[in-house]
Design brief:
Structural class: alpha/beta
Strand content: 15-25%
Number of strands: 11
Oligomer: single chain
CATH topology of the largest domain: D-Maltodextrin-Binding Protein, domain 2
Distance between the termini: 66 Å
CATH class of the largest domain: Alpha Beta
Helix content: 25-40%
Largest sheet: 9 strands, mixed
Number of helices: 10
Radius of gyration: 23 Å
């Protein structure tokens, strides 16, 4: 009888502990990846936690590639990306028992930015490619000052870099002398300080300290991205392991709600509706 009671007591403790762990797990959400999607994720997380004070959402950047790697390893609930997954990433995920599902959360343009002191106003896609591949090295070749061009680019783990490489460089390599930066914020910092610099970043990172040039005569704005006029644009994603459930699903649905899309727009991105 005593043994039976002890066993029953231990079973109750185990069940209560297990339930408590599940409840705690449902109150925590981890998000990692693209620095482009980061402002949307951070603002949405803040708004969601204001509505749900018992929930804790951890948001980190690091680049699209790092976010996808974390999802494949089971180290994050949501991977932010500014590009779609590569075939090799999907294969690695499936081999690890992870089944990535994309959720488009906004649209974004990739603005080409120069120092605010630079008089150049407009660049064609061909000229931008020539700059980034090292064929044009001085601003005077583009109607600017007699000044060396300082090429600033994102590193290879960046989804923004991969989209820029595809849409602007046609797969060609960035000049070896380019200054590689790990985030949109880092690109903005270098370009705002170096008078001869040129860089590219998401619309959400534009500021008065930067000058966004027209590309093929089109100014990078939410309206020109939404209309399809601006030539360097892409969708932004959050990837989950399988179709989301529980807290993960609720957070994704919040971002896709009218309120969530308004938050994305306030951060400088193009809402889905």
């Amino acid at each position: 009888m005593l043994k039976s009671r002890l066993f029953t007591g231990l079973l109750v403790v185990l069940l209560v502990s297990t339930f408590s762990m599940l409840v705690m797990a449902e109150k925590n959400l981890t998000i990692q990846g693209s620095s482009t999607v980061l402002p949307i994720a951070q603002r949405a997380a803040e708004a969601y936690m204001e509505k749900n004070p018992d929930v804790n959402i951890s948001v980190r950047g690091g680049g699209s590639g790092n976010g996808v790697a974390a999802l494949i390893d089971g180290a994050t609930d949501i991977a932010n990306t500014s590009r779609f997954l590569k075939n090799k990433e999907v294969s690695a995920a499936v081999a690890n028992g992870i089944y990535p599902v994309p959720h488009r959360v906004a649209m974004d343009g990739i603005a080409v930015v120069i120092n605010s002191s630079n008089p150049v106003e407009d660049l064609s896609l061909e000229k931008i490619k020539a700059i980034y591949t090292g064929q044009i090295t001085n601003w005077k070749e583009l109607g600017g000052k007699d000044q060396e061009i300082v090429v600033v680019s994102r590193d290879s783990s960046s989804g923004t870099f991969e989209v820029f490489e595809e849409l602007v460089l046609d797969g060609d390599k960035v000049v070896a002398s380019a200054l590689l930066q790990a985030s949109n914020g880092a690109v903005a910092g270098v370009v705002s300080e170096a008078r001869g610099a040129i860089g590219y970043l998401g619309l959400g990172y534009l500021s008065p300290s930067l000058k966004a040039v027209k590309v093929n005569g089109v100014t990078p704005t939410n309206a020109t991205v939404a209309s399809g006029q601006f030539p360097i644009a892409r969708p932004l994603f959050m990837f989950t392991n399988g179709w989301p459930k529980g807290l993960t699903a609720d957070f994704i649905n919040f971002i896709l709600s009218v309120e969530g899309q308004k938050l994305a727009e306030e951060q400088g991105y193009v809402p889905l509706f």
